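Curious: why this fold?
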Amino acid sequence: MVAGGVAITSDVELSYGPAGYKGLVKEPYIFFISCFASIGGVLFGYDQGVISGVLVMSNFAKNFPSLAHDLTLQGWMVAVLTLGAMFGAFVNGPIADKISRRWDLLLANVIFLIGSTIQAAAVNVPMVFVGRFIAGLAIGQLSMVVPLYLGELAPPNIRGSLIALQQLGITVGIMIAFWLDYGTQHIGGTGDGQSEAAWRFPLALQCLPSLILGAGTFFLPYSPRWLMSKGREEEVRATLLRLRRVDPNDPRLTIEFLDIKAACIFDNESVAARFPGITSRFTLSLKQYQELFVVRHLNRRLIIACLLQIIQQFTGINAIIYYAPQIFTAIGLTGNSVDLLATGVVGVINFFSTIPAIMFLDRWGRRKVLIIGAVNMTIGHLIVGTLYAVYEDSWAQHHAAGWGAAVFVWYFIANFAFSIGCVNWIMPSEIFPPGVRSKAVGVSISTNWLTNFIVALITPRMLKAITFGAFYFFMAFCIILGVWVYLCVPETKGLRIEEMDKIVGGNQGVDDMARMANIRRRLGLYATGADSGEEGSEMGIDQKNASYEVTHHEA
């Protein structure tokens, strides 16, 4: 397709509309696509949440007495899903590159259905473990590909909000799992007469949203950036036009198309220059994984993405949820009241506290949200830990202190949900260049699952050994989060994915700058007033404030 004579001046916004909830209202089509794809998050949250209720059901204990009474075996039953998810996320990068983000969603759903069916039909412990591991593989894939897919579909003004829907989906899944378990435990009674349906039904029900998501993938669009990587340029234009809902001649569409194309060409030419003679896809993938750790600007991005995952787990989110039932028991509550306040209400707070992130994250920015969350999570840990230190042996005589601890457990959950609970999915999916993006997202998300496994392993022992000191331990990581974000983490709101080199580095060498300048020249994309013979000035243009001219080119 030929475009010519289109002048893009400084008063033309390359954004497609307002940020935040106003942008979501203005883009109902892509908002619906993102909500639908985020069913993957619902599966993630549901499968993690449902097992805790199933484990305490009397009929499950009757069928699997070793699982019901062996705490170590219970721990491994939970951990096997985490290990499967870690592996699934790590290997999913090349798969998503090969078959597309869209069909990768379908593949993950097929695997999830297999794992869920085995769990629901289990008649012995090995079946439970195998089903959990297979479902874990799929959850790892989904936790990696959903934010990657949404990030590549989204316009820059609402990208954070759309990817945050992944976290909202997770909270919805956890919340549904708790309330469903709470209801189905009464099928046949809660004692010896309890029906097998009490636990088989909630395990089987997760197949329904998986089937819906799997069927819906046939109607989802391809990622335009994946299409460009495969050379399907006409489909890129058609997909962008469908997603952005603007006039075909809108200059913003042309700029976005050219940016995606320039980044893709640059990546392909750079790979050919760095790895001449390598034709094996497997060998090339290994080289690209290696570059994530040794190339300076890629290494910096990977550190940001992985540290977010590590610190997210070490904020103590799982520890404080784990300890919540003991807090509520200590202040005199028993039975169903403990379950409702410690798990049910926490799930509701988690869900509603994620909504402000979706509404305002692209207006406030990632850095501000992370810093506010870090400060408030620190306060939550400080107060809960101090109350435990003072009243650990006298909760029964100090109910007000117990309720204060409960309130600040909820306070911590709320601040986690709207800050790092969302941002840790967003930044990895938006800061990497196209050639290594899926691989890098896979590495970062698998880091999350690995850290999840480690924290789950050490938390019970830590809480038993140092009790309230555990809260101070996790508080230290909240402080580290705030300081690290303030000093080291760049702001990515409002930037196109192809603009991330400006803030995290890239194209820094003379050869790289010359290559990118040459690509822009070939595509006919110039900064007005720039000397086309000066490669350095061409690379130094400010795409937000400079004037652009798109001359005749072949697209």
In short: The longest strand covers residues 6-8. The chain has 26 helices and five strands.
